Automatic annotation (TrEMBL):
Gene3D superfamilies xrefs: Anthranilate synthase (3.60.120.10)
Single GO molecular function: isochorismate synthase activity
Catalytic activity, as annotated: chorismate = isochorismate
Keyword line: Isomerase
Similarity field: Belongs to the isochorismate synthase family.
Domain Chorismate-utilising enzyme C-terminal, first and last residues per copy: 146-397
Name of protein: isochorismate synthase
Pfam families named among the record's database cross-references: Chorismate_bind (PF00425)
Length: 406
């Protein structure tokens, strides 16, 4: 019988600047407003593919937990061993699972550290970065602007024909840098510009998502749905008027209703009660505003074994990133979108030893590969969509990552 691996968690006390602790390589983040968790080093990692990837991920995580002996003097959320996950949008692409060797968490003025393996507590050092602006050369991604607008028109035609109600079409841009791209500077810029989003970094995928796909904590489920977008101008009075127009827009309200309904229907079989607000609120970000709804529920106590992986298999992909009906929208995306999304628009976040966790949808993000980066944006297409307006919306969504790279 092989010996177990020691996992130790102790309280640190003071609130630490999480994003300032990260080394250059093998670092992982899930931080919002300065609170959350970061990790570095690799204790174990794997990839999963195929239609059973969520169940396969659960099996791998449980097998890893069986090899641990855990000493945890904190016993709070995100303490103990943590699995960072970045799932692909499509089952055909690889999803990445990583258990960091060191994990540091901070919330409400307190912080703690978990490390895997024997030995003394790892030292923590704040890293001062030199923000030398990289010289970036931008190019079209998988398809040109003109071709993407044609695809939007094709999607609208399918909706008018009654094939489906909504489909989300994504596009990408690529940039080449004159030097290796440092994810840490991107993360710090995103955290400063978008403090209300979840700042994530897992296996080269970095971003700031405003959309919480799933939070499971002690039997309570939360999902924040975003669908319906309008660009901000920077003028407060003008943006207030635009927020009002977004809240009244029949096109955006229709798109939002599809997304909310898909989440509520996915959670209903597992919950004794759910709460779905009658109308959305307007979420203000630095560059855009979204219609937003927080769907909540309480798990049925008699349904044992329901965990994050169970719910992910039901929730992904939601109408917010795929369409309605989901199966038909997924086929339309495969037919006309013209690119692999990789891990863009897939679930991203963390899962703990109890099967609780917090995962967003990988939006406003880019995938780094040494001196290059590929960034993504998607738009919900409904009957009232106009290709030019959808293009403008995608450009506004690109601006988050483009600005963070400067």
């Amino acid at each position: 019988m092989s010996s177990l691996t020691q996992v130790t968690t102790v309280r640190l006390g003071e609130h630490l600047p999480l994003l300032e602790l990260l080394p250059e390589e093998n670092m992982y983040t899930w931080v919002r407003g300065g609170e959350g968790i970061v990790g570095w080093g690799i204790h174990a990692q794997t990839t999963v593919t195929g239609p059973n990837r969520f169940a396969d991920a659960r099996a791998w995580w449980r097998s890893q937990l069986e090899s641990f002996t855990i000493t945890n003097s904190v016993q709070g959320v995100t303490s103990g061993p943590i699995l960072f996950t970045s799932f692909s949008f499509s089952p055909e692409d690889e999803s990445v699972l990583v258990i960091p060797r060191v994990i540091v968490g901070a919330t409400q003025g307190n912080s703690w550290i978990t490390w895997i393996g024997g030995g003394a507590q790892p030292a923590l050092t704040e890293v001062a970065l030199k923000f030398a602006p990289a010289e970036l050369s931008w190019a079209d991604g998988s398809i040109s602007i003109d071709n993407w607008k044609v695809r939007v028109a094709q999607a609208v035609a399918k909706i008018h024909n009654g094939d489906l109600d909504k489909v989300v079409l994504a596009r990408d841009l690529r940039a080449q840098s004159n030097s290796p791209i440092d994810a840490r500077s991107i993360l710090r810029n995103l955290a400063q510009e978008f403090p209300s989003t979840w700042i994530f970094s897992i296996a080269g995928l970095v971003g700031a998502t405003p959309e919480l796909l799933l939070r499971l904590k002690r039997g309570m489920v939360t999902s924040r749905v975003l669908a319906g977008t309008i660009s901000k101008t920077g003028d407060d009075d003008r943006d207030l008027a635009l927020a009002g127009s977004l809240a009244r827009s029949s096109k955006d309200l229709e798109e939002h209703e599809y997304a909310v309904r898909s989440v509520a229907e996915a959670l209903e079989p597992f919950c004794s009660s759910t709460n779905v607000p009658e109308s959305p609120f307007v979420l203000h970000l630095a560059n855009v505003m979204h219609l937003a709804t927080d769907v909540t529920g309480a798990l049925i106590e008699s349904k044992s074994g329901v965990d994050v992986f169970t719910l992910l298999a039901q929730l992904h992909p939601s109408a917010a990133v795929c369409g309605t009906p989901t199966s038909i929208a997924s086929d339309v995306i495969a037919e006309i979108e013209g690119m692999s999304r990789d891990r863009y628009a897939g679930p991203v976040g963390w899962i703990d030893a109890r099967g609780d966790g917090e995962l967003g949808i990988a939006l406003r993000c880019g995938k780094i590969d040494d001196n290059s980066i590929r960034i993504f944006a998607g738009c919900g297409i409904v009957a009232g969509s106009d290709p030019e307006k959808e293009l403008a919306e995608s450009q506004a969504k690109f601006s988050a990552m483009r600005n963070a790279l400067n």
